[in-house]
Design a protein that fits this description.
By secondary structure, the chain is α/β, with parallel strands linked by helices. The chain has nine helices and 14 strands.
Length: about 260
């Protein structure tokens, strides 16, 4: 077995990602209730008690809602950077000292047979960061919650076998939608979220010869639709010569249902 993963939940209401190897079973974020987290893991035939750790991206509630509950219930170590720990401590309840670990920004940490690299993103949180996962020559990149995709991020995540990549909103839907202007400005800004079109443009720069799968993630419930996101990103990629449904396939994610557990081959 190489790497296997599932996007357990992704969207404005809750986010969680699961990745495993022969020796490790890691959760990234737990943005739904403890009961929902158990259900999502069960749907991909993962026993929550078999988890080996939880990585945290940032302190927003749609990423840490069930974090404390899951960690305490299964006695799991939590890994986050110092600023994120300070920002979320009041929201996750008491965590035992022997379950608290620091994973700094722009660092590489080895978890048995998985090497995890953290990288910073531009988002309105204390010190948000996301991850790439490496195992036996395979690479999976988790990239959401960012206002724009910097050249540094592109270099870090380029040529992954699979991407979980943000396509948060359609700009037209957002501009015409019901959100107050200050919220629209935040989403559209450099510390907000990536639009469908910008997602496609960024992917054009980072897709490599081994890239096979793209999961469009963190879609807004109010300002996007799965079909629209898929069509918008696909159009950008095809206009620039990428062959879809042959070499590269695009998949939806959902805020309430996990994707099938996929083994990176």
């Amino acid at each position: 077995m190489t790497l296997r993963f599932s996007v357990l939940a992704s969207g404005s209401t809750g986010n969680a990602f699961y990745i495993e190897s022969e020796k490790e079973r890691l959760l990234v974020d737990a943005g739904l209730s403890g009961k929902q987290m158990d259900r999502l893991l069960g749907e991909v035939q993962v026993d929550p008690s078999s988890l080996t750790g939880i990585l945290v991206t940032h302190e927003h509630s749609d990423h840490i809602k069930g974090l404390g509950i899951v960690a305490r219930k299964y006695n799991l170590p939590i890994y986050a950077n110092e600023k994120t720990w300070k920002a979320m401590e009041g929201s996750i309840g008491k965590i035992a000292l022997d379950q608290k670990f620091e994973f700094g920004l722009e660092q590489v940490k080895t978890f048995s047979d998985i090497e995890v690299e953290s990288f910073g993103v531009s988002h309105d949180a204390a010190e948000p960061m996301f991850y790439t996962f490496h195992h036996q020559g395979k690479k999976v990149a988790l990239v959401t919650d960012l206002g724009y995709v910097s050249e540094r991020i592109k270099k870090t995540v380029e040529d992954a076998d699979a991407y979980i990549f943000e396509a948060n909103h359609d700009v037209g839907m957002l501009r015409m939608g019901r959100y107050p202007w200050n919220v629209k400005r935040r989403i559209l800004g450099d510390s907000g979220h990536v639009s469908n079109e910008d997602s496609g443009l960024a992917l054009c720069d980072i897709i490599g010869n081994r890239t096979k799968r793209i999961y469009l993630a963190h879609l807004s419930l109010d300002n996007n639709m799965k079909d629209l996101a898929r069509m918008s990103v696909s159009n950008v990629l095809q206009e620039r010569g990428f062959e879809l449904n042959k070499k590269i396939n695009i998949f939806d994610t959902d805020p309430k249902s996990p994707t099938k557990l996929y083994e990176v081959v």
